[in-house]
Amino acid sequence: MGIDIYAIKPSPPCRAAFLVAKAIGLDYNLKIVSLEKGENRTPEFLKMNPAHTVPVMTDGELSVCDSKAIITYMMNQYAPANLQSMYPRDPAARALVDQRLYFDSQLFSTLRGIVFPLLYLKDLKQSQANMPRLEENMALLETFLTRSTYLAGEHLTIADLATLANVSSMEACGIDMSRWPHVQAWLAKLKAELPYYEQANGEGAQMLGAIYQRILKDLGGK
Ligand SMILES: N[C@@H](CCC(=O)N[C@@H](CS)C(=O)NCC(=O)O)C(=O)O
């Protein structure tokens, strides 16, 4: 029994789930799903998630798909009292964290628009056409981080952890982060502060970055 997370390490939304579980000391069984072998399209998997995406989390009879639903469930159900500030119960404070989480979904979608065409379609032109949208979102993230040390105020929340999974992936893919100095400083701070960073996120970000950079080079991009 216990929590199972169906996932792959290179995926940013999967790493958001790993980061939040580690942050609150929640044990889970990692069930690797091979997308190459179509394990996310079997009848059993589609029953859990008709959208055939990872991560999916199961907790007994309950199955939850979409990383944001998973991480908020983990917090609501399992966060110890001293860590509940990572997803505050107060509606006003929670609204800010939720806003940043919805923003992060948009950030992931722009990152996916760059990574997916390169990895799966080997289409450099389509990948690079999506770069201005990512830059627009990163400028917005930079604005958020000029206003507070963490994404939703002066302490760590799950919005930081979700966004960390995406931003560290961009860095690993070789996207020049020096254009957004507050984001760069926030990234360095989180890497240094989170003892579980490497295991939950760093390793997977490097895996994604290595594949991306290899294909980018093969296609003559930079
Ligand atoms: N909104 C979803 C996105 C998940 C997602 O797109 N996962 C990708 C891997 S990064 C996936 O499973 N792709 C396989 C597919 O679409 O069939 C979440 O946050 O969980």
Automatic annotation (TrEMBL):
InterPro entries (UniProt xref): Glutathione-S-Trfase_C-like, Glutathione-S-Trfase_C_sf, Glutathione_S-Trfase, Glutathione_S-Trfase_N, GST_C, Thioredoxin-like_sf
Keywords (A to Z) from UniProt: Transferase
Domain of life: Eukaryota
GO biological process: glutathione metabolic process
Short name of any one Pfam family annotated for the protein: GST_C
Entry GO MF terms: glutathione transferase activity
Domain GST C-terminal: 90-219
SUPFAM superfamilies per the UniProt record, alphabetical: GST C-terminal domain-like, Thioredoxin-like
Domain (GST N-terminal) ranges: 1-82
Subunit annotation: Homodimer.
Protein name (Swiss-Prot/TrEMBL): Glutathione S-transferase 1
The organism of origin for this protein: Amphibalanus amphitrite (Striped barnacle)
Name of the gene this protein is made from: Gst1_1
